[in-house]
Each structure stands twice: as structure tokens, then as C-alpha cells.
Write a structure and sequence with these properties.
single chain; mainly beta; 3-stranded antiparallel sheet; two-stranded antiparallel sheet; 5 strands; UCP037225; CPXCG motif-containing cysteine-rich protein; zinc_ribbon_bacterial
Amino acid sequence: MHKYSNQNISCPHCGHVIRIPLDASAGSQEFYDDCSICCNPIHLTMEVDELHKTINLFVDADDEQIF
């Protein structure tokens, strides 16, 4: 599995497609990146599955409340 890759995502705030660099060398991670258009923070959760050699990326606006 490649440890470094790029992924296109849609900003959950404005819908603009941006390119996010991913570094899977440290395993699963949770991080934030700012949209280059609207400057709002994007919450990203990356889950690395070494067994199946896949990376799952979950994107949300982080203003969604879970109860």
C-alpha cells in the first residue's frame, strides 16, 4: 500500500472540490484542513486498513452535533 497519496474531496461548507494530501505512514488519524475557497475548517478522519490495504476518508463540517 502506498503511504502517501492525494484525494479530491468536496468542502462540506461551500461544495468546492479541493485536493487533500494524505500520509498513511502513521496509521489512522483525525485532523483538520481549511478549505482554500471559503476558509472554513474541514474535519477529516482517515482510517487505514492494513489487512485490506485500503484507506477510508470521512469528511464532515465538524459543526454537526452527535448525541
